[in-house]
Design a protein that fits this description.
Elements lengths: L8 H12 L3 H14 L4 E7 L5 E6 L6 H6 L27 H7 L2 E7 L6 E7 L2 E8 L4 E7 L6 H4 L5 H18 L4 E6 L2 E6 L5 H14 L2 E5 L8 E7 L11 E5 L2 E3 L2 H10 L12 E6 L5 E2 L10 E2 L2 H30 L14 H8 L27 H9 L4 E6 L3 E6 L2 E6 H15 L6 E11 L2 H7 L3 H6 L3 E4 L4 E8 L8 H13 L5 H20 L9 H12 L14 E5 H7 L5
Parallel strand pairs: 1-7, 11-13
Antiparallel strand pairs: 1-2, 2-6, 3-4, 3-6, 4-5, 7-8, 9-10, 10-13, 11-12, 14-15, 16-17, 17-18, 18-22, 19-21, 20-21
Helix pairs in contact: 1-4, 2-6, 8-9, 11-17, 12-16, 12-17, 13-15, 15-16
Length: 594
Amino acid sequence: MRKIKLLPTHEINKIAAGQVVDRPANVVKELIENAIDAGATKIELSVKDGGETLIQVSDNGCGMSPEDAKACFLKHATSKISCIDELETIDTFGFRGEALSSISAVSKITLDTKEKESQHSTLLQLEAGKIVKELEGQVTPGTTIFIRDLFYNVPARKKFLKKPETETRQITQLFHAFCFDYLNVHFKMFNNTKLTFNCPPAKDLVSRISQIWGHHFAKNIVPIQTEQKEGRPHIHGAISNHQYSRYDRNYLFFFINRRWVKNYQLSNALTKGYMNVLPPGKYPACFLFIDIDPRQIDINIHPRKEEVKFLHPRSITNLLQTIVKQALEKNLSKQIKQEVVFSSPVKNYDDNFKTLPFDQFLSKQKIGEPTSVIFHGPKSINQQETPKQLSEEQHQGAIKQKNYKIVGQFKKTYILLEKEDGLFFVDQHAAHERILYETFSKRFEDVVAVKLLFPQLISLNHEDMVAIENHLEIFRKNGIEIEPFGQNQLAIKATPVSIKDIDLRDLVQKVVFWTREHQNLDQKEFFKTINEKMHAQMACKAAVKAGDSLTIKQMEELLENLSKTKNRLTCPHGRPTGWTLYIHEIEKKFKRRL
């Protein structure tokens, strides 16, 4: 019995389409690239339901003749090359001739295109790659293409699409990349018929960044450029300064010969350039363009041409890391000089200690017995990894029974206690962080909030605003009264007492990141996870810090509250709150004991 058989052509085309198109953003990429290759100076993108229902791209490019309009949907039909040897020097996008053929195989398409000298446009309707209707229209020169019901005939592919918000975010990031790359083009984007971005031609990159993410963000941008030398790669563009950071890599844009690409080596080199500038887990923004001899790269290693391979990667990454470091150092030195000249004297921190959140918390709120909660954070340090970390009973013996004498602070970070069996160290930040975390968890949805005299305004970009505006109720249930204010801004009008003097911008940015990270959880688990992370972050922000001077009374109050707190062994992030240096270990050091 014959087991091997040939698939029908239409099934082959659907399978092949999966190599080029697996989500709506891939379609958008191919269509905008075609518009740019056609010389368009105006490009409009419209999406509906994350691109699953509709993707529409209109341009004022050169348009196509009736013959070319029909031919463009054929496999391996292209106007960019005539032989494989030309791939080494290709400087246009759609050189394979696979895009429209693949897209048409898994969608319903309407194409309306007109050359400048033609009297009528050519209007074609296709389903599953076949032309079902051909008409004449009367449109201005250019091309408009509608992609409807993506993957309607490939249910196996369709079921793997993400939520509309996620697919829209992918499309938006791609749209931004084109905006940064082509400053001379007027770009517009509509999402579910609403205009979300209107970017007229920009004079420079910083102006374009301002159009998309606002002037406030653009103030943190540092231009960057290497010296142009024949035969050497040229890097130029912009990076964010030391004052800006994100919790994701979504603002890292790399362009190789004007093509937006993804490359781990470039991302890693950039991150190394920020070493000792940004804390772990934080990422910068960058908009970097690398001009290089096309023969030194391979852009054809990926079906969608999204990745690039360098012939000499180390020379590129070393150069990138070096110029990022130099740009940051130069910018920081410039700011330091300005601050030295214009800054006013700073008061002694100890004189203002009463303004600390810790002091407010202790004086205005007494801690009751918190209930135990589950925290899905970093793994707690176990007993074997830190043998000197206290057990629950030892901790009670050290703190709860008060069989100690406060010696004072060590390095303004640790409270040092004298006990009969040794010296006991308490990490003041970790201890206070645990106290606040348990309090926030216990008083969840019943926290006392205070109105702010002046609302705290937080600016977000459009995508972050969309990601968070459906989850503002989580803030409100934690005592943070927050609501949209104008375009892409949030106004915080009330907060819990213990965090009223804290800048909540970082908390909001983290919640944006968490909503994306945990978007696939069911509603109940999502709500629980975000709450626990918010409580830990709020506690961290409000807790007394390492380096804060404490009075003996303040130390006593912190230790008393810690003794009433469950889960007191560690902070919410898993670090120990207490640690003992036993007397026999001290005596060994002084050779009093063998």
